[in-house]
UniProtKB/TrEMBL annotation:
Region spans: Disordered: 28-60, 271-313
Keyword terms of this UniProt record: Chitin-binding, Disulfide bond, Glycoprotein, Repeat, Signal
SUPFAM superfamilies linked to this entry: Invertebrate chitin-binding proteins
PANTHER family registered for this protein in UniProt: BCDNA.GH02976 (PTHR23301:SF104), CHITIN BINDING PERITROPHIN-A (PTHR23301)
UniProt GO MF annotations: chitin binding
Record flagged with keyword Repeat: yes
The protein, known as: Cuticular protein
Coiled-coil segments on the chain, per record: none
One Pfam assignment: CBM_14
Bias (Basic and acidic residues) ranges: 273-282, 303-313
Amino acid sequence: MWFNNNSPTTTTAVLLLFVIGAVVAQSRTPGKRPSSSREAAKRPPPQSSSAESSGGAGGDLTDECPEPNGYFADGYQCDKYYECRDGAITEKLCPDGMVFNDYSINHEKCDLPFNIDCSQRSELQKPKPALHCPRQNGYFAHEEANVCDKFYYCVDGKFNQIVCPDGLVYNEKTGICTWPDEAKKKGCSSQEVFKFTCPAVGMSEAQQHPRYADPEDCQYFYVCINGETPRRNGCKRGQVFNDATKNCDWPRNVPECGDWYKGILTDAELEELEHPKPKQRPDSQAATANRRKQSNKYRPHQSSREAPVDDLE
């Protein structure tokens, strides 16, 4: 763009541009950048003095607090966190096997690893193993790989063995019992746990999740998810699986399982399970009379010989 130096308008424009440039330059003056209130505290650098390394006030440790007060996760180690009080930082560790839950800066909480995402800060303190407990606290799989339905719950290095419900295995990723195909534990696949392989079927039948009788137990059957993955299910007490109808049924309708409950339930008990008696309902007239009787307890008794109050004048 070309300017006419002799024009008053040009002189004014140049002065205006100079003022704007000065204001912008002043606004870009370097200053301290505020830290995010939710940012995890980073690991403090090594300190020369004993007071600083112990988390006391002073030195550079004060700068590690994202906020003057609160609890903040370490940026590298999942079971390490920091307590900040009036800007002074103190390094802390969760009990062995637990990790820090940073859901709120106002709460100091250590939690099970299953509930916390430690993928971005995967370091942990050195474990302190005990009998059946790889760490002092938490849920842990059985030492033998082929033992699928048993696991340990450890508190302060003391263990308690837990057994999963029938047909489920311990899931090391979630800390609970799940179907074998969900747990994906080596040596504990659905076929290995149930000793049952789903027969090959066409795609349309596989999408219906076909059912098959348990060859060892009349009360149970297998559901083949997508025709491939078996899951063991059972009928309610007194019933057996009818492989002809693919549903639970009464033993009298399944010849090969007619005596399955013999010695376990009597014929009378089976009959009562199949034809339960209706619950006794109180007679409506008796119930009404009882309610009247209860309400009359608190009414003053009035003899038929007594005159109404209005006639006593």
